[in-house]
Amino acid sequence: MAIDGFFESRRQADHVRESKSPHSAPTFYGKKPQGGWCIVHAYNKLNDATIPAQTPIPRNVVIIDSMTRSIIYSALDLRDGFYQILMHESGIPLTGVITPSGLL
């Protein structure tokens, strides 16, 4: 199944791990507006219980505009987006997802 393949590659990269958490969100594919598909985790209940960040992350256009006079640049590959951002250990049990093969 496509979802299992997605998570197997993330497991091999140590981006996800099996879970025994009592919390989980359903996982499915959603259609992108420009075509294609993306993996979606329905974290609605978790989002409703979360206190919003006081400092929003700037949009990428703002970041790029602020770099126009820079001399030195570096690159960061975030191809897998949020799967590459370390999470505080206490938050990990809250972000479990249900897949066809079980809980991650």
UniProtKB/TrEMBL annotation:
The ranges of region (Disordered) come to 1-31
Q: Locate the transmembrane regions by residue number.
A: none
Q: Which domain of life is it from?
A: Eukaryota
- Start-end of Basic and acidic residues biased regions: 7-21
Query: What protein name is recorded for this chain?
Result: Reverse transcriptase domain-containing protein
Organism annotation = Phytophthora cactorum
